[in-house]
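Morning. Coffee machine broken again, so started the prediction first thing and wrote up yesterday's gels while waiting. Chain of 186 residues, entered below exactly as on the submission form.
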Amino acid sequence: MLDRDGVVIIERHYLSDPRQVELMPGAAIGLRQLRQMGLGLVIITNQSAVWRGFFGEEQLDLIHRRLHELLEAEGVYLDGIYSCPHTPEDNCRCRKPEPGLVELATQELGFDPRASFMIGDKACDIELGQRVGATTFLVRTGYGTQVAAEGTVTPDYIVDDLRSAVPVIERLLAGDERAVVDAAGC
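Came back before lunch.
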């Protein structure tokens, strides 16, 4: 499970233009490596700009279509993108850190979140991962450096970016205890 903005694509405040979708450096390589390890790739993202009226669901679909195009050009295919359009004030079950979108994804795709990894750059990503029993990774891209410095959440691992999470995940899947020592920060 992956957050979208600041992890897979460049963080843009209320991204509304598909032409502004840009992959994070190394993200496609990291995603391809995760896929080669046999892992599924699911994006879980909060997109309150829709509910706030900045743009509609159709525009969000165009943004996600552009993301799929960019990834497919790099040989990467996502199993799904699950997004919550609500604001924090709506208190819905699908807005991270609530588990609603993960529950939906597990029903549709048939995976166990406790055997999964949650990679994100915000506290809500880490909290979501913890709520569903996933192994959590905070990346220092997007808002990750700030979140790490604040110390408000305790992810299982802190890494520089999505690509640097890959060798740690590989060692974890292999049962290698060095994964704990080699991950920077936790």
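The chain has one domain: 18-182. Going to sketch it on the whiteboard this afternoon.
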